[in-house]
Amino acid sequence: MSNHLAYIEDFCENRLSTEENAHANQRIQRDPSFAKDVAFYLQMRHLSDLERKERLKALYFTIKQKQRGKIIKFVSVAAAAVVMIIAGIFFVNQSPTSEEFAQLYVKENLSTLPTSMSNQNDMLSQGVNCYNEGAYEKALELFKQINSNPQALEYQGLCHLQLKQYPSALSIFEQIAKNNELLVNKGKFYEAITLLQMGQKEKAKSILVEITESNEDIFGKQEAEELLKNW
Amino acid sequence: MISFSFKKLSDQDLVAGLQNNPSQNRRYENILYERFMYLVDVGIKRHHLAQDEAISVYSDTVLAAIKQIKEQRFEQRSELKTFIFQIFSNKCVDHFRKTTTNKASVHQAVDLSDFSAIIPDNQTILQKLIQQSEIQLIYQKLALIGQKCQDLLKLWNEGFTDDEIMNTLDYNSTDVVKSSRQRCLSKLKDLVHNSTQV
Fold it and tell me: Any idea what the Cα angle at residue B119 is, between residues B56 and A32, rounded to 5°?
């Protein structure tokens, strides 16, 4: 009987030769018992297909659920990335702190000094050249040799600032600030910048407030206002 | 276990996996099923099927495709996509006929069109012999053939290959699986036939 079923299985699963197939097909028509056994096997295969079909149908929903999970995960990751990018942009574009502002101001505005076109006061020109080349100590020596020149004094202060000799710089800028004869007095603003470099924020702030509240067109007023706005 | 993050297999590898790798048959079936699942949407949009109908037709499509692939009837002259799409289109038309013509009662019988060895005339003869009532009877009698036979036939019914059944139920060889299956089928057939004759 088992061999008989093996033969039927091979026939239904298309594993017989062409001749054997033809013989089995003829037998279905001639032999009702054989046909009935084939029908039984096909019924079993039908049951098998039903089971497999149910499994595949369930698989459809499992895969869909996984895909939805993947999409949700992707959207979450994308959303997190967008938040991080926005946060990054926010932090990058955020106004610098007062200390950063001071450093930036020194770097951008005080790295070079205006060169004189005239040959007057040659020592000053040499000092400016040295300053612009970054030779601050040499420049400082030259500026020190110039007496009674407010410009040279200011440049001495800047040399100290660049050399991070803040107390010396501060002392010079305080001295300049007290000079009422100057047309443009940069002393107070430079004082504030030096204090910020020294980390003395409160002192710097009070000077900046003083600058902004002044009725005169004082040097650094606009920068002071900007600094205080983002304080 | 379904492999979702599987590196995409080529058509050739997938076909070879289904034909020559019986121990991982289920895995390749799942990959094939997942790959063309978009056809369910095609069935809904183009053939106006309800979702459950489209899923059912698509599942039939994959089963038919697997059968043809295993019987070496897919010769890879066309892409696998084209091959599956062709079967799916035919299955959609069949489904349409089944649900809209007065031949519905005939078509509700077991579909033998995928059994290519059986000539059409014989398919009709066999259709008549297969009665839906007997299928219910088979389910009933399955409970009487012993646990080992039940387990074996259950796995076989779920589409496990002899190789997979051998590993799952600890048989010594695939030949033993095959002969045991035939013995179980024979036992079941006797139970069913005796019951119908009474």
Answer: 105
Per the CB < 8 A criterion, the answer to whether A56 and B62 are in contact is yes
Give the model confidence (pLDDT) of B88-97 as tens digits: 999 998 888 8
Query: For A111-127, what is each residue's pLDDT tens digit?
Result: 888 876 655 568 888 89
- At B187 the three-state DSSP class reads helix
Indicate the domain borders of chain A. 2-90, 98-229
Per the CATH hierarchy, to which homologous superfamily does domain A98-229 belong? Answer: Tetratricopeptide repeat domain (1.25.40.10)
Report the residue from A45, A57, A63 with minimal CB separation from B59.
Answer: A57
A99/B contact by beta carbon, under 8 A? no
Domain coordinates in residue numbering, chain B: 11-117, 132-197
Residue reference for tokens 């430079």: A190
Global pTM reads 0.55
Task: Pick from A13, A38, A43 the residue to mutate for testing the B interface (most B CBs within 10 Å).
Answer: A43
3-state secondary structure of B77: coil
Is the CA virtual torsion B110, B116, B120, B125 positive or negative? negative
Q: How many helices (H) and strands (E) does chain B have?
A: 11, 0
Phi-psi region of B139 (alpha: psi -120 to 50; beta: other; left: phi over 0): alpha
